Amino acid sequence: MSIYNTPLEERFGEKLEELREGKNMTREQLADQVGLTARHIAALERGERRPTLNTMEKLLRTQFPDLASKYVRQFALLFLDLQKKCDSAEISTKALDLRGMLDYDINDYLPPESPSTTAIEVMNGAFTGGIPNMRVMVRDVTVPQALEYKEKLAAIDGVSSVAWLDDSLDVTVPLQMQDTATVESYYKDGCALFTVTVEDEKRLEAVAAVRDLIGEGNALEGAAVSTAVATNSTVTEVAKIAAIAVVYVLFILILTTDSWAEPLLVLTGLGAAILLNNGTNLIFGTISFVTNAAGSILQLAVSLDYSVFLIHRFAECRAENPDASPEECMVDALCRSTGSILSSGLTTVIGFLALVLMQFQIGPDLGLALAKGVVLSLVTVFTFMPALTLAAYQWMDKTCHRPLLPSFDKFGRFVARIMLPMALVLVILMVPSYLASNSNQYYYGAAHMFGENTRLGADTAAIEETFGRSDTYVVLVPEGDTATQQKLSDALHAIPEVTGILSYVDNAGASIPPEFVPGDTLGLLVSGGYTRMVLTVDADTEGDGAFALVERVRATVQQYYPDNYYLAGQGVSTYDLMDTITADMVKVNLLAIGAVFLILLLMKRQLLLPIILVLSIETAIWINLAIPYFRGQYVFYIAYLIISSVQLGATVDYAILFSDRYQEFRETLGRKEAVAATVSAVTTSVSTTGSAMAVVGFLMGAISTNQLLGQLGNFLGVGSLVSLAIVLSALPGFLYLADPLIIKKKRQPKEA
Description:
Blueprint: H1 8-22, H2 27-34, H3 38-45, H4 53-63, H5 69-87, E1 102-103, H6 115-126, E2 134-138, H7 143-154, E3 159-163, H8 180-186, E4 187-188, E5 191-198, H9 203-214, E6 219-221, H10 223-256, H11 262-280, E7 287-288, H12 289-320, H13 326-353, H14 362-398, H15 409-437, E8 441-443, H16 455-467, E9 471-478, H17 482-493, E10 498-502, H18 504-509, H19 519-525, E11 526-527, E12 530-537, H20 544-560, E13 566-569, H21 570-604, H22 608-631, E14 634-636, H23 637-665, H24 671-703, H25 707-729, H26 731-742
Parallel strand pairs: 1-7, 8-14
Antiparallel strand pairs: 2-5, 2-6, 3-5, 4-5, 9-12, 9-13, 10-12, 11-12
């Protein structure tokens, strides 16, 4: 049989066994090294069990100790993505194509050492069934019909388990004679609620099959559904956003340039940089859906001004030196513009690279991709664009037209009159906007990513209206010592939010020897040296109440098993997510601000000007992030964290360009005249980029059904406009006041 007809997990197992035997290791020895059971290793080698991310990494480190850590993770992610693509029939094991490697599950980006990640890894190593990740509600059914639905749900490929009322009570006994609370947890007002566990590798197909089975009139929700919806919607929405964004950017460039050909040249150069960036994302193995959705769009908005600035400088040099050759003018343009473009680009790169220090792995994922995109844009501007411009300058000359926008001279003189009051207003706004921006209410996980205006949001609301909110926790404790397990179960039952527990001591009884329990049932509750307790809790997956419950459950379990227990679940993962990303906030922001400031300090070679530039843009960020507070809106913390670095890196360019041109004009003009001239000269350039970024952001906000991406887009749109407004109105006042300290007077030659 050809190897290409062998399932991928079998090929993996064969290779693992070959490597183990080549090192003369037993399964027990390998199991001890990687922290698994020998039975788990055997299942992997036989192709009966799929390796998880952590398992892959552990095996790679033990079998290939010389392999660098970053390549270990990349290879593991690559293998798992290929595995998913083979399952979905997107590719065969023969044609292992590397396109579209995206991860849509936020919890996958928790640090490997987080408690919930470790717990899931241990549970997957010991048990075959996962944590329930979907609730399915079927309306207008009898108990026998509900049991039929349960069988059909369990038969769907990718569904590993289905729990319903019959798992807790004897449904042959009239329901009126049984515990009302238990009954109404699963069956109420003719509606049946099933708790379903879906395999991660088959989420898309399983969720689609469940939807087909229950029909449009019923509902399903949960982490598996959220991930499936994000997977299906993001690619389509991103393509729509990109198409509209390109049309708008083309329109803006037509308005702000003097040649019909120039917009096409700019977009050609920028398109080349974006294609290079997307293609080189292959080095990461997989990228997050956030990076996929925002990467190209942000690169378009952030890098637009580099090409525009170079071409405008080239036109200026040709106008000033009509006798010079185009090549000489391009050299002159590069000499004049390189400093500003590099300072803008480097500060943007640094702002994005700050995300790399986040423990939450979407930060490094997005930060590296965006930083790489800006670097490639800079390379394109300094190599490809000069050659393209020189090849097409005659075409630009032939397609010249009169300016479509009026002169901004009047606007420049107006700003010169109002700049000091505007600077004062900004100073007044600094402190309250800073305090408000740090006082928002946050969502941390994926539970609220789809609003009630979406099908998933409506389904979630319908299920919660009938059965309330619910989550599932899994507690793993060492097997044996059923007396302690019984005490723990009693203590957990005493927690008001715990509505049910599935465990050995609850379902079989502490006094029943394991050999008297059916094998299938025993394997669900006791395996791999652990006893599993599945808790159903009346709580949301996030929020103050949910987080307090996680802490209480952990404290309760810790009383009986201080050093040897594991706790997993969606709410638990969200708690760890909250714990992780809030710890990242101060570190990432301070690094971004410090690094940008250092770059400006080195380039400007003075202290006061970098302080003014960074403080102006930081105030714009605070104002942007304060708006949800005053509107009483919840903020997705991931969007909040990302936009702080992105807005700083993306819009500090405006401030740099403005200050550079102000210093140029001060060589020949007075302070007030230099302000007016600077505003007149840069308004077109910064407005082009700022409006493009704003429109791109608002498009993402309007089109994305994923509310995290939508909010990130709206932050980007509002932040761009606020930064633009501050640079064109308040920054001139700061430069005017600081002029004696930031403008170096030229020394006059000594008289003979």
